[in-house]
Amino acid sequence: MTETILITGATGTVGSETVKALAGEDVRVRAGVHSLIKGDRFRNLPNVEMVHLDFHNVDSLKAAFTGVTRVFLITPFTEDQVNLGKLLIDYAKEAGVKQVVRLSASGADAEPGIQLGRWHREIEKYLEASGLPFTILRPSSFMQNFVHYNADSIRNEDRIYMPLGQGKVSYIDVRDIAEVARVVLTQPIHENKIYELTGPDAITVNSVAHAITQATNRLIVYIDVPEDVAAQTMAQNHLPDWMVAAMMELHGIAKAGYAGNITDAVAQITGQPARSITDFAEACCSAFQPE
C-alpha cells in the first residue's frame, strides 16, 4: 500500500520545502494548507494533494487525517502552539498513523531553557507519551530567516540589523531540514529517535553579511542593534508582547554564544553534507537584489 504522508503547515518555510522533497517519492503527499490559494504552488507537483487544514476546526482536522499513515507535524508560531500540537497528536493517534515526525527546535531539552524551548519540549513529551512511533527533529536557526526578516533592509540599505553581537550560530538551510524529513518519513529505521540538526559551521552575522556580499557583489554590512532597540522595534511593528519576549530570549542565547553547537546529523541521515552559508546566499541571491 502506498503511504499517505500529511504535512501540517505545508505552506510554511520548512513545510513547503518538504512537500517538494517528498513529491518525487513513491508516496502520496497530503499538503495541509490554511489557504488553498497559498497552496497553488503545489498544484503541478506529482503525487501531491492539498487539503484545507484549520487547526481550530474539528471537521477539517478529521478530513485531513483520514487515511493518513505518517505525519510531519509542524505547528504555527502562536501563543497556543502547545495546545495545537497536542490536539494534532491526538488526531494522529485516533487515525492510527504509523509515525509522527515532529519539527521541534534546537535546545528544546535545555534546562531551564527559554520559553520557545519549553513549549517545544512540552509537545515532544506529549508525543513521546502517546505511544505513537515518533521522530523528533531539532533544527538550529534557519538561514532562510535572513530572506524572510532581513531582505528588505539588505535590498534597500545594504544592511542587516540584528541584536546578536558577535554570537555564533550554526544556521541551517531549510532545504536540508526538508531532506532529513523526507528520509525519516520514508525509512522506518529512524523511529523513536531525536536528531539535532545544524549547518556545517557556527558563524556570526558578519559572516552571513560577507556571504551575501560575495553573492550579490554589493557590500552588505551587519549592524549590531542594542537589545532594547530591537524589542522596541518589534513592538512598534505590532508584534504581541509574548512574541517579543520569546524572540528576545532567542536572540539573547545566540548573543551569549549558546547557539553554536554543530552536529553531522544532516550528512549522516541524507548522505550529503549540510549546505553552507555560501550555498544559501548563492541560491537566494535574487531575494537580496534591489527591485
Could you characterize the architecture of this molecule?
The protein is an alpha/beta fold and 291 residues long. The chain folds into two domains: 4-139, NAD(P)-binding Rossmann-like Domain (Rossmann fold, 3-Layer(aba) Sandwich), CATH 3.40.50.720; 145-167 and 201-261 and 271-288, UDP-galactose 4-epimerase, domain 1 (Alpha-Beta Complex), CATH 3.90.25. 43% of the residues lie in helices and 15% in strands. It has helices at residues 13-23, 58-65, 81-95, 115-129, 145-157, 174-186, 205-216, 227-236, 241-255, 265-270, 277-283, and strands at residues 4-7, 28-33, 48-52, 70-73, 99-103, 134-139, 159-162, 193-197, 221-224. The strands form two sheets. It has a seven-stranded parallel beta sheet, with helices on both faces. Strands 7-9 form a two-stranded parallel ribbon. Strand 1, helix 1 and strand 2 form a beta-alpha-beta unit.
- Treating each run of at least 4 consecutive H or I residues as one helix, how many helices? 11
From the helix content, strand content and strand pairing, which structural class follows?
A: alpha/beta
Report how far the terminal alpha carbons are from each other: 48 Å
What proportion strand?
A: 5-15%
> What are the secondary-structure elements, in order, as H or E?
EHEEHEHEHEHEHEHEHHHH
- What's the average pLDDT? 96
The CATH architecture classification of the largest domain is 3-Layer(aba) Sandwich
CATH superfamily of the largest domain: NAD(P)-binding Rossmann-like Domain
CATH topology of the largest domain: Rossmann fold
Number of domains: 2
Across the major sheet, the strand order is 3-2-1-4-5-6-8
CATH class term of the largest domain: Alpha Beta
Number-wise, the strands total 9
Large-scale geometry: globular
Q: What is the helix content?
A: 40-55%
Rounded to the nearest angstrom, the radius of gyration is 19 Å
Main beta-sheet annotation: 7 strands, parallel
